[in-house]
Design goal:
Elements: H1 4-19, E1 29-34, E2 39-42, E3 58-61, E4 66-68, H2 77-86, E5 92-96, H3 99-107, H4 117-123, E6 129-130, H5 138-148, E7 153-156, E8 160-165, H6 168-190, H7 200-212
Parallel strand pairs: 6-7
Antiparallel strand pairs: 1-2, 1-5, 2-3, 3-4, 5-8, 7-8
Helix pairs in contact: 2-5, 3-6, 4-6, 4-7
Length: 221
């Protein structure tokens, strides 16, 4: 079986996203890119998360050809492949319908600021809102890719959240960070006050500390 470990990780992170309420049923999609083989493990279309097993995860190449799998890959495949083709630092993509991030993409039109230290570590910068484009299209992939730039997350207007990272674990961390930020901002705005943002330099420093952190029991720390 091709990309067995990547498929296992997708199942594991999918279950975590499901438990945390960031996805439901068959909505949203995940992928991991193996640069050595040039292949992508990606979630199938219209198969509920709680019914998926390792063999249900599809394997495609960067030209969208199905290499292995019994299902069609997600209709949002272009949304994933555009990062693997154009960013060397991205090897995983998560698209979720996290509720508060989705709400923020409906009521807001400016980037979601960094107001939480934990969010700064997971995201490294403000989260832009990409303009609405119909799901499952190349155009959606393009406008979202443009919105993220060299960042790690974007909210798709009237749709949901996308996060990217060098690993699926870091893409998940970005999802959790964005959702926590959106929820906090909505609460702050309901109080009729403006949230105080962290400075760009502090956000950058917190992100670097997070990425370079080594556990105390690591002999190389």
């Amino acid at each position: 079986m091709k990309l067995l470990e990547e498929r296992k990780k997708i199942i594991s992170i999918s279950n975590k996203l499901l438990t945390d309420g960031f996805i439901n049923d068959g909505q949203g999609n995940l992928s991991i890119y193996d640069r050595q083989s040039g292949l992508v493990a990606i979630t199938p279309s219209a198969v509920p998360y709680d019914q998926r097993d390792v063999e249900d995860i599809c394997v495609v190449d960067l030209d969208r050809n199905i290499v292995e799998g019994k299902w069609k890959p997600t209709s949002e495949t272009p949304l994933h492949l555009i990062y693997y083709k154009n960013r060397l630092d991205v090897n995983a993509v998560i698209h979720s319908h996290a509720l508060n991030s989705t709400v923020f993409g409906i009521i807001g039109d400016e980037p979601m600021p960094m107001i939480l230290t934990e969010a700064a570590t997971g995201l490294g910068g403000a989260v832009p809102i990409a303009p609405y484009v119909r799901p499952g299209t190349d155009e959606l992939a393009e406008v979202t890719f443009k919105a993220i730039g060299d960042g790690f997350a974007a909210i798709m207007a009237n749709h949901g959240l996308i996060t990217v990272g060098p690993t699926i674990e870091l893409a998940y961390a970005a999802t959790a960070a964005a959702e926590a930020t959106a929820e906090t901002l909505i609460l702050v705005r309901s109080m009729g006050v403006k949230a105080k943002s962290l400075s760009d330099n502090e956000v950058k420093s917190l992100r670097e500390l997070f990425l370079n952190y080594k556990p105390a029991n690591n002999p190389d720390a």
